[in-house]
């Protein structure tokens, strides 16, 4: 499968089972999916901006993004219901572990002034979300082709029941926390 998945099976599962004092191997938390979302507010005026974001997300993840549309009309934002406003990718299985491996080993070291992931970004159920301010931290994106930096949110969904379990899982996989 992938390098990180093999490490998860051989090293992380036994370590977590011991650390969290779980009797059954099936109780050990696992990574279920990674969702990458990029909201594009100016797509209401210029649809080409969304096409560029979708192209970049496809390059980063190796998977075609889905378009997300506005649910409600908001006059002050010049937004109508059904208008495309975001692109999102859901990674599972092999692609998910390959993305996480690249993210931990290549992307995180390229983030400016990085002092560790905030442990406050957990949602109460063991899922972790972080925001990146621009897409240039990914080595797949060429600096010369980027017109304007676009942010994105990355959510790591785990099967953990608590934040402590989710944090233990992500730490064992190599995520650097403060």
Task: Please describe what this structure looks like.
Helix 1 crosses helix 4. The mean pLDDT is 84. The protein has a single domain (3-40, 50-66, 89-173), classed as 50s Ribosomal Protein L5, Chain: A (2-Layer Sandwich), CATH 3.30.1440. With 178 residues, it is of the alpha+beta class. It is globular, with a radius of gyration of 18 Å. It has a five-stranded antiparallel sheet with strand order 2-3-1-5-4. The protein has helices at residues 3-19, 47-61, 93-107, 163-173, and strands at 31-39, 66-69, 84-91, 128-132, 152-158.
Briefly say what this structure is:
The chain has helices at residues 3-19, 47-61, 93-107, 163-173; strands at 31-39, 66-69, 84-91, 128-132, 152-158. It has four helices and five strands; from the N terminus they run H-E-H-E-E-H-E-E-H. The radius of gyration is 18 Å and the shape is globular.
Which terms summarize this structure?
alpha+beta, 50s Ribosomal Protein L5, Chain: A, 178 residues, single chain
């Amino acid at each position: 499968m992938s390098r990180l998945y093999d490490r998860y099976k051989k090293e992380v599962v036994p370590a977590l089972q011991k650390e969290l004092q779980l009797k059954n191997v099936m109780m050990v938390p696992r990574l279920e999916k990674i969702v990458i979302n990029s909201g594009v507010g100016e797509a209401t005026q210029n649809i080409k901006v969304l096409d560029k974001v979708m192209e970049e997300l496809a390059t980063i993840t190796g998977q075609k993004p889905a378009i997300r549309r506005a649910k409600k009309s908001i006059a002050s934002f010049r937004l109508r219901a059904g208008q495309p406003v975001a692109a999102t990718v859901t990674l599972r299985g092999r692609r998910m572990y390959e993305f996480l491996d690249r993210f931990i080993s290549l992307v995180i070291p390229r983030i400016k002034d990085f002092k560790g992931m905030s442990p406050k970004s957990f949602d109460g159920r063991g899922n972790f979300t972080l925001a990146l301010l621009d897409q240039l931290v990914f080595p797949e994106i060429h600096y010369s082709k980027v017109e304007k930096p676009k942010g994105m949110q990355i959510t790591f969904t785990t099967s953990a029941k608590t934040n402590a379990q989710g944090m233990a899982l992500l730490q064992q996989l190599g995520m650097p926390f403060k």
